[in-house]
Write a structure and sequence with these properties.
Structural class: mainly alpha
Distance between the termini: 39 Å
Radius of gyration: 15 Å
Number of strands: 0
Number of helices: 7
Largest sheet: none
Shape: globular
Number of domains: 1
Low-confidence stretches: none
Keywords: Cell projection, Repeat, TPR repeat
Order of helices and strands: HHHHHHH
InterPro entries: TTC26
Subcellular location: Cell projection, Cilium
CATH architecture: Alpha Horseshoe
Mean pLDDT: 95
GO molecular function, one term: intraciliary transport particle B binding
Strand content: under 5%
CATH class: Mainly Alpha
Oligomer: single chain
Helix content: over 70%
CATH topology: Serine Threonine Protein Phosphatase 5, Tetratricopeptide repeat
Length: about 130
């Protein structure tokens, strides 16, 4: 598992978070998947790969309702949205971000959804 963790970290730090995510998907039913997912979510957040960080924190939050996972997911969704607005992330990623925010029972999530949907309407992006 140590090799897998370092491989995921190398992918993330070399700008290939999708490959780290695919590594997690291959191992998601193993005993060590929680540890790998924490690493992916946190390292992706640190490196600015917010979409994959949000996906990771979403699964972590569903596995364990620790408030830190919601806070990570909230920050990662905001970061991903900022990247979409700036044109650094594809606009269709917004649908996925909205879906992640709908999977939670936090009023802040509802507020974020309203803001993102309003921006999408203004910019003629179907969501």
């Amino acid at each position: 598992m140590i090799l897998t963790i370092w491989l995921a970290r190398c992918y993330i730090y070399n700008g290939k978070p999708r490959l780290a995510w695919e590594l997690y998907l291959k191992l998601e039913h193993s005993n060590e998947s929680f540890t790998l997912l924490q690493l992916i979510a946190n390292d992706c957040y640190k490196r600015g790969h917010f979409f994959y960080a949000a996906r990771g924190f979403d699964i972590l939050e569903r596995m364990d309702p620790n408030p830190e996972f919601w806070e990570g997911k909230q920050g990662a969704c905001a970061g991903a949205f900022q990247q979409i607005v700036a044109g650094h992330e594809p606009r269709d990623t917004l649908r996925d971000i909205l879906s992640l925010l709908r999977n939670t029972n936090h009023p802040q999530g509802d507020q974020m959804i309203k803001i993102m949907r309003s921006w999408a309407r203004t910019n003629n992006i179907p969501v």
